[in-house]
Amino acid sequence: MARLSRRSFLAASAALAAQPALGAPAPGTGPYDVVIVGAGAAGVAAARRVAAAGRRYVLIEAADHVGGRCITDIRTFGVPFDRGAHWIHLPDTNPLTKLTPRGGIEIYPAPASQKVRIGRRYAREGELEDFLAAQVRATRAIGDAARKADVACAQALPNDLAEWRSTVEFVLGPFASGKDLAQLSALDFARAAERYANAFCRQGFGALLAALAEGLAVQLSTPATTIDTTRNVAVETPKGTISARAAVVTVSTNVISGGRVRFVPDLPRRQLDAFGRLSLGSYDHIALSLTGNPLGLETDDLVFEKSADTHTAAMLANVSGSPLCLIEVGGAFGRDLSAQGENAMVDFAGEWLARLYGADVKKSIDRASATRWNNDGWTLGAFSAAAPGGESMRRILSEPIRDAVWFAGEAAHETLWGTVGGAWESGERAADAVLRKLGPVKEPAPAEARPAPRRRTNRTAEP
Ligand SMILES: Cc1cc2nc3c(=O)[nH]c(=O)nc-3n(C[C@H](O)[C@H](O)[C@H](O)COP(=O)(O)OP(=O)(O)OC[C@H]3O[C@@H](n4cnc5c(N)ncnc54)[C@H](O)[C@@H]3O)c2cc1C
Q1: Torsion angle of alpha carbons 369, 373, 374, 377, nearest 10°?
Q2: Which residue has the least CA distance to atom 50 on ligand 1?
Q3: What is the pLDDT of residues 104-152, one digit of tens each?
Q4: Is the distance from the beta carbon of residue 45 to the nearest atom of ligand 1 less than 6 Å?
Q5: Which residues of 211-223 are buried (b: 16+ CB within 10 A; e: fewer)?
Q6: How far is the CA of 136 from the centre of ligand 1 (A)?
Q7: Mean model confidence pLDDT for the chain
Q8: How far is the CA of 349 from the centre of ligand 1 (A)?
Q9: How confident is the model at residue 22 (pLDDT cuts 50, 70, 90)?
Q10: Are 325 and 287 in contact (CB under 8 A)?
Q11: Whose CA is nearest to atom 36 of ligand 1?
Q12: Higher-confidence position of 92 and 29
């Protein structure tokens, strides 16, 4: 998702150095100090933090790979295809870029400019200025409205956006937030950190996250079915019950609201409401491999359409210099389209390109694949966006349950929600809170100090 609009290398080394003593025995052999549920960005960050503190932990993941919504697929096209997150927002302060391993991973700045297609031609400079001015006016109006009341962003839009209204609505709504502006809290939108500066990872953002998970004690294909806090924490999985003193739970808001994990006792109404008000929007990539650069675009060119309605998309062309073009769909339109299936999505992308560049371009489509995050049973959507009146719910997600369960994940970050960096920071914060509760580590008895056999179970996913 592109928005128009910490931690040092030493910490990473410390975390990795701590790992050999923390290899994961099979579930059921606890008790652990901490069980971390979900190996996306938040879970990986939490596990590194807990490992660095010398605590016994286990990281369990329902899927057969780490990464969650930040995963690189290299099999489908033979080049890296980020099925989820691709843009590294605010690279200068992004915790993942700071931890990037020295070898094998290259981060480079994203081009700052964007193009707008008006029918079969590009917008001229004056038109682009009008478009950008309309975006600025709309963003300011939402911020002004949010200072008075947490209304829907759509309610706050100025009336004079004229011919750019529909395009601005797409850019600020489905493209930036996965929801239409009528479903978006003005306050949540206004509090979100600016995300103008961006970078890309040539090997894929998911490959970077997978590299940061290297060596962690992960149990893959181990979904938590029940989290029981009646006495300490007992996490039931199909492979057995894991006992721990505390849990960090990083599954998406829709997974919790959808009842995919059972809590005993039930979650308090306050938390359930918060998960519901922070539901995930819809956002998908329709990836097309185009032979011979038929669009004549540069590496990582970002193109919008001057649209008249919601049936529109954005395109990130020639991803990292490859023939891959990502057609981005989201919001209510994207949700309906993805419900129709992958073929309908690919057809839409072909027609959209034909509308903007001529019918011949369809002949250049070599291979195609579309993500359908709403149908991914371990996620059930793209990223959280607060409903009007729901901004304060993000803080509620950070409150512990019975001093035993801490929630983390992108939805729990008040300004970097919907991003990998936000998920990472929230995972670290939850881990810090758990470590404070556990107190200082006691010196291990001599027999316990021996390193457990090391297991490296994670890998870059190839769905
Ligand atoms: C299409 C798309 C594009 C995006 N683009 C960007 C972008 O460009 N830049 C950006 O910064 N962010 C982007 N995002 C958002 C970003 O991917 C997420 O904010 C971030 O990856 C969320 O991390 P997380 O750890 O909170 O959650 P997740 O990544 O969802 O991790 C939760 C993990 O829990 C696992 N799980 C679920 N249920 C269970 C269970 N019962 N037991 C055990 N494990 C379970 C899941 O399999 C998953 O691995 C995008 C997201 C999508 C979908």
Answers
A1: 110
A2: 85
A3: 899 999 998 899 999 999 999 999 999 999 999 999 999 999 999 999 9
A4: no
A5: bbbebbbbbbebb
A6: 29
A7: 90
A8: 24
A9: very low
A10: yes
A11: 38
A12: 92
Query: Among 1, 280, 328, 376, which is best to mutate for testing ligand 1, by the most ligand atoms less than 8 A from CB?
Result: 1
79 Cβ contact partners less than 8 Å away, ≥ 6 residues apart: 319, 320, 322, 323, 324
85 C-alpha to ligand 1 centroid (Å): 8
| pLDDT the model gives residue 262 | 98
Alpha carbon of 334 to ligand 1 centroid (Å)? 18
Which residue lies with its CA nearest to atom 2 of ligand 1? 84
C-alpha 78 – ligand 1 centre gap (Å): 23
For residue 254, report the phi and psi dihedrals to the nearest 5 degrees.
-70, -30
What pLDDT is attached to residue 443? 64
> Mind listing the pLDDT tens digit for each residue in 377-427?
999 999 999 999 988 899 999 999 999 999 999 999 999 999 999 999 999
Sorting pLDDT into bands at 50, 70 and 90, what band is 329? very high
Q: Which of 35, 58, 327, 383 is the best mutation target for the ligand 1 pocket, counting ligand atoms within 8 Å of the beta carbon and taking the most?
A: 383
Q: Ligand 1 within 6 A of 252 CB? A: yes
DSSP 8-state secondary structure symbol assigned to residue 171 = I
Task: State the CB neighbour count (10 A cutoff) for residue 150.
Answer: 19
For residues 423, 426, 431, 434, the Cα torsion angle rounded to the nearest 10 degrees is -140
> Whole-angstrom Cα distance, residue 273 to residue 257?
9
CA distance 21 to 54: 8
- 238 burial via Cβ count (<10 Å: 0-12, 13-18, 19+): exposed
Task: Identify the residue whose tokens are 């923390």.
Answer: 22
For residue 283, which atom of ligand 1 is closest to its CA? 1
